[in-house]
Amino acid sequence: MAIATPPTPAAEARVERLEVMWQSRPGVLGWLMTTDHKRIGLLYFWTTLVLFGAGGIEAMLMRTQLIKPNNDLVSPETYDQLFTLHGLTMIFFFIIPMTTGAFGNYLIPLMIGARDMAFPRMNALSYWIFLASAIFLYTSLALGMAPNAGWFDYVPLANKTFTPGHNIDFYALAVIFNSIASTLTAGQFIVTILKSRAPGMSFNRMPLFCFAFLAASFGLLFALPPLSADNIFLFLDRNVGTHFFDPSHGGAALLWQHLFWIFGHPEVYILIVPAFGIATSIIPAFTQRKLVAFPLVAIAELLVVFIGFGVWAHHMFATGMSTTALIFFAGATSMVVIPSTIQVFAWCMSFVLGVARFKTPLLFIAGFIFMFVTGGLTGIMFVAIPFDQQVTDTYFIIAHFHYIIFGAAVFPIFGGMYYWFPKVTGKLYFERPGQISFWLIFAGTNLLFFPMHLVGLLGMPRRVYTYPGNLGWTTYNVIETIGGYLTLVGILVLFGNLVWSYLRAPAAGPDPWHGPTLEWVTSSPPPEYDFAVIPKVSSAYPNWDVEDREEDRRKLASGVLLLDQGHEQVEVTPVDGWLSRTVEMPHESPWPVLLALCLSLVFVMLLLQHFAIAGLMGILSLLTLLGWHSKEPQEA
Amino acid sequence: MSGYIASSVERPSKPAAWWGMVILISSEATLFGAFIGTYFYLRFRAPTWPPDGIPEPRVVVPLILVGVLLLSSIPMQLASNAARAGRLAATRLFVVAALVLQAGYFAYEVHDFSDQLKTFDISRDAYSSIYYVLLGADHAHVALGILFNLWLLAKLVRGLTTYRVHATQAIAWYWHAVNLLTLVVILTLLSAAIG
Amino acid sequence: MRRLEILQWTGLLVGALMWGVAHILGYGTTEATCNSAAPVLGLDQHLWEGVINGVTAAVSLGAALAAGAVIVLTSDVSYEDDAPVGRIRFFAIAALIANVLFIMMIVLYAVGSIGNTPCRQA
After folding, report:
1. Which residue from B40, B46, B195 is facing C36, i.e. has the nearest CB?
2. Of the residues A195, A344, B86, B110, which has the maximum number of CB atoms within 10 A of its CB?
């Protein structure tokens, strides 16, 4: 039962006080100054959807160009920008911000029984920096100088000699800028998950969604600095004349690749692990049973990211490194598949042992498991160095990673959109069009990506803007392009359904699925303060603990953990979740958007090589930080 | 006390601000890890290190300077302890003492850095590139720490609050990390004097 | 309880640390022995790989045994029970699985780096 209907007049009065205290300012100003994790999650959601559209247009242009040999829809130069932007956009500006920024922000405090993140203003800052970095990158497209050396941007192609224009400077700076937002988000999630859980939620009682996001956050925290170091070196080589990557002066071209992949491989686990978290939330709800092998799945989430830090040079098997060097990476790669396999078995057994209701969210998860296993099987094949050396940089690789990324990241995102749609909007989406959208997308993606395995084995390289007609590749490309358009139709049906459902669907109530976790305890949508009382937790499936929810209703009447003296939140001990103290939280603030603006100016000045002015903008940013910290929470 | 009845005992734990600082330090330490990894990656590819024409680094003076900086961890920790005990005057005194050591270290290093640039420029070769980036990044983090301390002193003018106690704890930890990091960076750069 | 805590944290963290050390130092040794500076550094690749991987594998085995010990000592408890014992058992189960993987990887490193000719291009 939702806390939205309090039982006694005294309790009602206190909840009314909470409502007033946590209210947002009306209008645009309220959105610019918001620190509410749910509003920030929604801002991320809509922004990433626009960027998903951009990445999708880039994909459709490429597929249309490739529908026939020697096509001239786009020039080679344009094609280079298309595949570079497509990779950058989908990875940095769609999947990461959609999973962490949208799903993570909205759901983590709700799942752990908190009222907001640990650092609400920093949360807003993450969003504004993300938005600024997206605008920064796409300005390059508007100016006709988008990055064009692939999303991995290898030197020496990316150095000043071979790509003299500003394209690569846009790349280096946009990636560094964007990584600030993700680093802040990662730190946010780690501290929130460790400190802001409801008392009683020890680590063995934490939802698997939180384990997944904790893993992804640690991944981001440790993977992004090497990428930043790489891009700092690149920017310096291009603009200041250093020689990090220049062999003629003691530098090394492979240095770029090492640092890039030390980031790049953990990044791909960061892409899919939050999606695993979404899957492990949906499966218990639609099988109405606890997930099989809970501790194994929890450690598997963390292990796949951790071991993922040790496999990076499997992206470099064809670079001429020695066998004894590469063996470390082949060894680790062979073991990194095991945690994922544990999870697949646990998910499948949960289907078998529970009573599965194949509503749209669960359909997407079933599709995800199929696509992930397919992509994983080709992934294992790459452990064999000789095989990898044959297929690297062909369409076989493109097939592999799209099965993984589209299958294991995007399918759960779509499933999650349907699953939590009732919670966020208060409406129950229309089921029939939902199922149709799934089947269209499933058919479309398999038609699009499966033939790529074959055409890759036939020798078609990646990143080519066209191909000759006498190599037997044409039919495969035609099928792939048709698959692309079919996928597009499915995606349009999906979003059309969500919009139509928002406008016309019946009310959902707080708990349409009888879901296992705490977000289903609140009203739909949740109130600003999330929980009237901080919930009692004694298992990893708190919404199914009827006695604890009864206890919460009694707490509401007696005022225990109601925390209505200010914007209050509890802090707990990190491992066992014992209550530690009550803290006052910041509310709305103009500082995050102002700081993001100052930082944008730093990056623009760096791009224009006005280094002194960039330094001044840096000082302005420090002054903004000073303003941010001028008022303490108890003074606000 | 806020609007809850103590239904369970409160247990002590580090505040969120402390954890936030640990996160920041982890991220920055990883960045330095990437720089140090780069240093050795480039070094293993060089027949001579430093390359011909660049003098080997001096050893004694840099080590003394690092020692001075490391010493500042003592007053910083004492400041953190004093803040938690509620002793305002002692807290202020210890932060000032730390600042003297840190600012003195930093002033000398800035002077030294600009002197060295006249001997060999950053754009000379890979050695100079990684040398100045690694060292410069470390100096930037020391500078940031000095700014933190100045901010803290300004806040402490008006007394101690829970917020300021947590801030002192977090900043003390920042300094321990930066001091350790500086030691590692200096030892890395000085390793060019061996062999 | 204190002993259980120490055993649990050892099991959870030490194996992971050992794998990290084995990976960085093991791969780093191949870089140090196969490039221009190798004559200056004068390291024997096979010897170093043997030592690094041998020591880290042994310590990881210790961590695995620590985790196993906790599982045996908490056999009357479930991982769903109250903290701290429930949590300790939960982490110990997790640690055992993790350490098996870490030990396997270090063994593969040893076999691969000692069983192959040093510095031969793949």
Report:
1. B46
2. A195
